[in-house]
Amino acid sequence: MSWLELVAAGLGIVAVCLTVRQNPWCWPIGLIMVLLYAWLFYDWRLYSNLLLQLLFAALQLYGWWQWTRGGERHDGRKVSRLGIAAVAAGLLSGVIGAWLLGYLMATYTDASSPWLDSALTAFSLVAQLWMAQKRLQCWALWVVVDLCYVAFFLYSELYLTAGLYAAFTALAVSGWLSWRRDPALQCAP
C-alpha cells in the first residue's frame, strides 16, 4: 500500500458519493482519481486496468459535459432507463470488448491476469458510459463489476483497493436506490 493508492482510493469514495447525489463535481474529482490509478496500474502491470483508467479519463470529461450541458435543452441530463434492446447491446459490447482486449493482452503483453482484467475493463466501460448518460441500469452493472473487482484485488493482494471496491459496491446499491426515487425518472417514458 502506498500513499498514492491511499489518495486515489479516498478520491474514489468522494467521487462516487457525489455521483450518487448527482453532483457534477464527481467528474473532475473522478478524473484526478483515474489518472492516479492509471499510474498505479502501470506499476502493478495490470495493463487492461491501466487502459481502463485512461478511457475513464475521457469518459470523466464526457460525463461532466453530459451532466452539465447534455440533454435536449442542454441543461444537463436527467436520470432515465435504458430499454431491453439497449441493455442487451451494451452487455454484448462488453462481451466482445472483453474477448478482444483479453486476446490482445494475453498475446502481446506480460499482463498478470489478462482475461479477467480485460473482462472487468470492458464491462466497466459499459457501466461508466451508462453512468455518464445518467442511465439507472449503470448501478446494477456496477454492483456486479465491483463485486468481481473485490475478489480480483483480494487475489492480487491489493487489499486497500479491494476495500475501495467493496465500498464502491455499497455505494452502487445506494446509487440504485437513490436514482430510482429521482422525480425525473418517474416522468421518463
Give the tags.
8 helices; NMN_transpt_PnuC; transmembrane helix; mainly alpha; nicotinamide riboside transmembrane transporter activity; Nicotinamide riboside transporter PnuC; transport; 189 residues
Protein architecture, described:
By secondary structure, the protein is mainly α. It has one domain (3-187). The protein is built from eight helices and no strands. It has helices spanning 3-20, 26-43, 47-69, 84-108, 114-132, 137-155, 159-180, 183-187.
Structural class: mainly alpha
Count of discrete domains: 1
Mean pLDDT: 91
SS elements, strand count: 0
Task: Tell me what portion of residues adopts beta-strand conformation.
Answer: under 5%
Write down the Rg.
16 Å
Order of helices and strands: HHHHHHHH
Proportion of helical residues: over 70%
Ranges where pLDDT stays below 50 over 5 or more residues in a row are none
Largest sheet features: none
The general outline is globular
**In whole angstroms, how far apart are the ends?**
47 Å
Keywords: Cell membrane, Membrane, Transmembrane, Transmembrane helix, Transport
GO molecular function, one term: nicotinamide riboside transmembrane transporter activity
Family: Belongs to the nicotinamide ribonucleoside (NR) uptake permease (TC 4.B.1) family.
Function: Required for nicotinamide riboside transport across the inner membrane.
